[in-house]
Structure prediction request, 402 residues.
Amino acid sequence: MIQRKTYLAQLEAVCNQDLIKVVTGIRRCGKSTLMMEFQEVLKSKGVDEKCIVSLNFEERENSQFEDWRIVYDLILTKLPSTEKKYVFLDEVQLIPHFEKLVDALYVKKDIDLYITGSNAYLLSSELTTLLSGRYIAINLHPFSFAEYATAFEEQKDTSRLFRQYMNGSCFPEAVNLSKISPELTNTYLKSLYETIVVKDISKRHHLRKFDTLQRIINFLFDSIGSIISPNNIADELKRVTKESLSHNTVQKYIRFFTESYLIYPVQLYNIKGKRLLASNCKYYVVDLGLKNILQTNKVDADLGHKLENVVYFELLRRGGEVYVGKSEDNEVDFVVKKYDGQLEYYQVAYTVNDEKTLERELSSLRRIRDNYPKYLLTTDFDNSIIDGIKKINLIDWLLDSK
Prediction:
């Protein structure tokens, strides 16, 4: 089992704090496994097993619960009356009025509560209103490259392994299946994709135009790393299919994709004015394997934008708010605003061996007049500092635990 050390450390940091710990993320990214790992951490620190209750509401034996009060009573009967207790509720949003269950457990001060969900509905307005200021959210992603590499310790060529990472999938089960057969991996990814699109999106929102939904997903997957708007998508669909869609409809569909954690929107940040721009976004896909299984995407195509995709999620894992930098006609791939207000700037390129390419990538960073750290990440092997800009090998950066 690959330990999710980053996320375990976050859970340890908030353990026994007077907060509900909410772990969210796309289906099958490892939320249940993380909860089990953390329960083992608790036991290793002396917590008695009888003080831990864990319920997964996707399991058949728990699917019959339709009254949150029955679940509440069941949990209390399983726990001792004394000592600190730990309750783990997996996919809790499947319980009707789950927010009442969460609130009822939270107010019992001898219970430390952990919940997971694979849809942003878990953090819906009803729950956030009820629990305002009383929870902390941890968004779990599929494997980082550093985590992925531990599954292939026999592979010493990290460049080859990284290409495999970009052209495969980083979902935990997909990684396991890739060791057996690429066909099994593709079958698994297609099944997972269909579950997310059909069950989590189409059925939940009662969408009748599945073909339209699929075309919008294809457009977004083909456009990762590009600034686009709902109007762009509506215009392109009308041009290709003659189907007329309003930008409001497209915007609604995009919201469904983001709520299921299939795609992540990234806002634009005005570098000069140090403010967000209320305009178009870039979008990144939670797992490149989902992009690669679609017929419209060739495995080794669009490597530059795939690199951006990898970097975006690594920056999210390392903490802070991640934006796309804009300043007049200048663009920087990522601006990271840390929790202390400090900024970091990142430019990503597959290679800058060509002098013109190097100059183009550096120029975007040179135009920024503040003294915050600036980085150029590439797959080139040389690391150097150019005009205060740190040029770093991307693979080394991804594997650097610091």
User: Anything to note?
Assistant: The first helix runs from residue 5 to 14. The chain has a mean pLDDT of 92. The first strand starts at residue 20 and ends at 24.
